[in-house]
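User: Can you fold this complex?
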Amino acid sequence: MVDHGGNLDVARSRFGGEPADWIDLSTGINRLPYPVPQLSTHHWHALPSRAEIESLHEAARAAYHTTAPLLATAGAQAAIQMLPRLAPPGSARILSPTYGEFGHVLRGAGWAVEAVSDIEALAGAGLAIVVNPNNPDGQRHDPEALLALATRVGRLVVDESFADTTPELSVAPQAGRAGLLILRSFGKFYGLAGIRLGFVLGGEADIAALAAASGPWPVSGAAIEIGRAALYDRSWADQTRMRLLRDAARLDELAQTAGWKLVGGTPLFRLYDAGDGLLAQERLARARIWSRLFKGRPSWLRLGLPGDETEWQRLAAALAR
Amino acid sequence: MVDHGGNLDVARSRFGGEPADWIDLSTGINRLPYPVPQLSTHHWHALPSRAEIESLHEAARAAYHTTAPLLATAGAQAAIQMLPRLAPPGSARILSPTYGEFGHVLRGAGWAVEAVSDIEALAGAGLAIVVNPNNPDGQRHDPEALLALATRVGRLVVDESFADTTPELSVAPQAGRAGLLILRSFGKFYGLAGIRLGFVLGGEADIAALAAASGPWPVSGAAIEIGRAALYDRSWADQTRMRLLRDAARLDELAQTAGWKLVGGTPLFRLYDAGDGLLAQERLARARIWSRLFKGRPSWLRLGLPGDETEWQRLAAALAR
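Assistant: Here's the predicted assembly.
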């Protein structure tokens, strides 16, 4: 089992409390979500139709500035689960450290997986994986460099799960080239991880293969209705981008007062060198604020951004203690 | 692409009208759905936790009278999509005619698929598939015969997507034996196909393999919250079973006045010999009532049950015309 943020069960079993007592900053999920519209009973009742799914695809193409083949999936994770089905097991290189599920899923499907720490070391790989901007350290990769890399590997997967706040980093506008697959998450930026929605963009053959693997009803009616409304709402997205940028700076200031050093991050999460990560996590956990640690990196602590002012005050108080 | 009911796009492109104008009887989805409770913002926002998913599993075990290993999936269809991953491609036999996705998915994954018309012909198969009660003809198989068959095949899949109204047919209470996999649909009986929820029950190794293939968040927060409430609501289920039985008899009477002969069915759908199926479909479609035809069976017409009294009156009027 891969270690994930967002599992409050672990926090509660160690430190007690009810779910509602906790501020979960262990993920990069926006805590001020897109307001869920009143849902029609139709979307609960009926199977999503082809036309409805296609209208969600159109909304995603508009949001991601592409006309390329694209498929809605039950979260970016669902696309990761299907990656091994695009080719017979071979060898993959993953720019690391990064999101643990790529290596886990590929190894489970019989792939030989190599973690590399330099993007140049990906060249020549049968399957190369880059998360941009990267989770957990926020490392950014130049889109031009990635497009060049795509021509030097069998297949390049660019996971843009945290790219909504930095659209200038996205290669989605260049989607459609053979050998380039792009993953997008809906739940993180829109703060609606529970609806399970993401997208994969790519060449026609890859998207057709993934569509066949995911079947006729890959996402729920609620995901279609909410996703369509949110992806067309440019004003909410613009305001949220600006708010997250401001709030990330505010979190960095708070962290500085606690003596933590910024390692990197995106406007949805910040990675700090907290000296003793475990100690820092326990200090926050006593105030029912949950954070994320990383195996093999004992000084690291990752924090999502608090939502409303009450949450900011609770975090400030916990850090001042 | 497999032909499915529930795709009103086709009806509209042929006969016009807005989705709300149509009564969709082309599926076996209950048109008087379980009332969706007010959903907590938590379930939209957060990733489903292990404890939440496990609590849904418990609700399903209670509803299906089993303590066996079980996995929530994004509809029974999601389990079908993963079937080919349980074993290297081999040969499968499907008791036919039945739901088209089994053959489609297995062939797509490189399996040799044989349609057989007699349950005895399944014995000796590497993978055998039975839908009980069957869609579209409602054929029923004795649970004891299925359990005996399970010992004579490599793996037996029993799709109980329409078994909620005939719990006496279910082998779910015997789930857990190696080589027996049982699929359950949530959306049909509860009338909530849009939330994408189903379950697969089986031996420990198979369920673990399917869990690995579906990843850490196989269903949405809404599916967890609604599914848990509905599966524990025995009184709604009992009343709905009785109502569907009464309504199925009412539909048969209506069909008889139209000169159609009952071929078979379940309390969620009825299959009629309408003489000329296409003509019967067009007659209903002019009244904006959508039905299901079957390739190679030109006299067959399948109808789900109307929901409220207005829908019954519209159907009666269309048949009297």
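The longest helix of chain A spans residues 234-257. The first strand of chain A starts at residue 23 and ends at 24.
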